[in-house]
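---------- Forwarded message ----------

FYI, see the ROK family protein record below. Original note from H. follows.
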Amino acid sequence: MTAPLTQAAHVIGVDLGGTKTAAGVVSPSGDVLISETIPTLNRAGGEAILDATAALITGLAERAADAGISVSGVGVGSAGVIDPSSGVVVSATDAIHGWAGTALVSGLCSRLALPAAAVRAVNDVHAHALGEAWLGAAAGSSSSLMVAFGTGVGGSFVVDGAPVLGHRFVGGHVGHFASPYACADGAPLPCVCGASGHVEAIASGPALYQAYLRFGGSSLDAADTRGVFALAASASDTHDDGAAAASADSRAAALRAIEVGAAAAGQAVGGLINILDPETVVVSGGLADAGDPWWKPMESALRLELLAPLAAVPVIRATLGNTAAIVGAAKLVLEIRETS
């Protein structure tokens, strides 16, 4: 990095996911001023990913310097289980080959010529939740539970501005406890973690699509989860050519898959609320962004699950969108500046 270190400088937040890595120059107030996204080299190994990420950060720092903005550090929200004290990727799925064991923080520090204190890292879902807790849907809350439903199911419980990571840094894996909805023909559905019967096996986007197929839907009528939602929307429009072309079985399967997936999601979040008693609940991810066909049955199931004293807990859609994890990752470094 060519920009000098200064106490009041901006920082770069990085959202390192399994398919893409997004980064942005973030002001002390949380504004993303300059941003860029690159594909994650998820089959090239940890060192290649660190090289590409460092190049992305360096390019942003140079663009910031050209605009008269100094960059003082880097915060990273990364896929995998991250030990924030050592900056090492403790474990990771096959979504990123060779990522487990990567020295994320020290690797970036050496490539960027930054001191260890200038780079911090945490799991990407925790970074997402930090962003929403700082400037998004949970801003001003003393505690917030965020659960994201998309390609997977993840979450984070943020208390007084810090995520609860757990003793082994695995806190937040809220997709991996049992759901009574996660079964078919009397057998628990397999989960990507290797176990079965988990929330993620029924409430994630890919799981919703598999449910559509199990319920009699045709891949010719809907090729993916997005197609299932389009098919469900067209089913109520008798003038829609897509609805006319699709079979009645596929339309019914789409509606049922969304209803079941949303109910499983809502029940799971409701159970977590009963356990954690957060001030605010934020629901995020691609399914939450799909609108009322998913949101309404999700929230209905959630409310049915709640203990009486929790009946009025606010349940809010995430508001920061794709910048949430960038902002949250940046906050990791900005909070050092605030307390120093």
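H. also flagged this: The two ends are 22 Å apart (CA to CA).
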